[in-house]
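Suppose you are handed only these lines of text.
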Amino acid sequence: MIHQPIKPAVVGSFLICLLLAAAGYMIPGENLHPFSPALIQMVRASALVLALILLFETILHIQLLNKILLGMVLGVVLGLQFGAQIAEVKPVGTAFLRLIQMIVVPLVLASLIVGTASLGDPKKLGRIGIKTFAYYLSTTAMAITIGLLMANIFQPGSGLSPEAQAQLLQNYQGQASEKMAQMGKTSITETLLNIIPTNPVDALSSGKMLQIIFFAIFTGIALTIIPENKSRPVIAFFDGLNEAMLKIVLIAIKIAPYGVFALIADAVGSFGLDIIFTLLKYTLVTTGGLLIMASIYPFIARTFSGISPYKYIKAIRPAQIIAFSTSSSGATLPVTMEVSEENLGVSNNIASFVLPLGATVNMDGTALYQGVASIFIAQVYGIHLGVGDQLMIVLTATLASIGTAAAPGVGLLMLVMILKQVGIPLEGIALILSVDRLLDMFRTVINVTSDLTASVVVASTENQIQPPEELRS
Ligand code: ASP
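From them, the structure of the protein bound to aspartic acid can be written out as follows.
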């Protein structure tokens, strides 16, 4: 493609915005100038975002995915450089997040109704369901085992000095008790019964994913049983709605570079790097375990579909980046579905069933993190966990991941349940709270990667995948 030469006016505007933003962020002391802090904040944040728009839309001629990647890198750099100040750009990220969240409920409802109806046979659905659950349970158990192994080998809890421990416990006590109070007290029977909605409209309006899935599947099945002249218009309606929602994903993804930039800058700006050093060993062991998991999925995908691992990683990257910057597999779902169908060639009826279910029940990254976190806390408190206790952790974490929302920080709440089960002091979560936001980003990437791999595995065994030619090894 031949590009028009960049107009000097564009370069000029870009430089002015950049200078304005730089001056705004670097001028120290409010009493050096007559402007109100609120005005300065608004001007410098707008100038920064405007500079970014000019850079991405008119100066750099690169692919969308590279723009998103660059947005992410710039977010990290500016977040580190300007710390909490950079939170001013967050509204751009929130707008992007809300835009993709807006699509989740109608997309899941429409695509699952159409997907189930087009399968045409409830038996087929049962078979797909069994395969999906078999994949989810086995990868979750594998992930948590890797987490436990890593924590037993590297002993992250042994590196924490008593002073650091006391300080963490003191600083995060309040937040820890808040989390403990948030932990629901519903029993397993109730959780399972809750999957059946008493009012589907309520389920839709409050975004109760498992209830929506249940209702959509039932409606889909019913549509295959009633006379065709009655079902046809309903299916056509939901099919159209599904198409329209996927179109919105494509539009939303165009502003992803800015959204990702703002979300990452805000997250990194609020971390405070020193705290990461205090918990360096724990952070490294967890991210190391997650990396091991990340390297396994492309090979699982190749075994079933023949897609080259390297190309697989490239094809799923958009969903991974959105997962990283939003820390929510639920919010990422529209992008995950788009990637599965468009980039990997998974059929709509498999993607629409496996992925919404996966976003809710399959959390490999979270399970792995819970394995490391429980051992870490036990080590700090000098509690020895035997094989029996560790098996209990595997079981509880696997079960706990079912029925919990796919939202930021949920993994931490589930951890409270696990600690309780094996008798580790619950206040121990205060020790890991400070790095939780960071680890949430990494574990959500793994959660989403696992869901995508499930869609490839199930679709391959059902002959419902047609990967684009360029993905083959
Ligand atoms: N944020 C994760 C997700 O949405 C859940 C968690 O580990 O907190 O997948």
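What can we learn from it? Residues 122-154 form the longest helix (33 residues). The mean pLDDT is 87.
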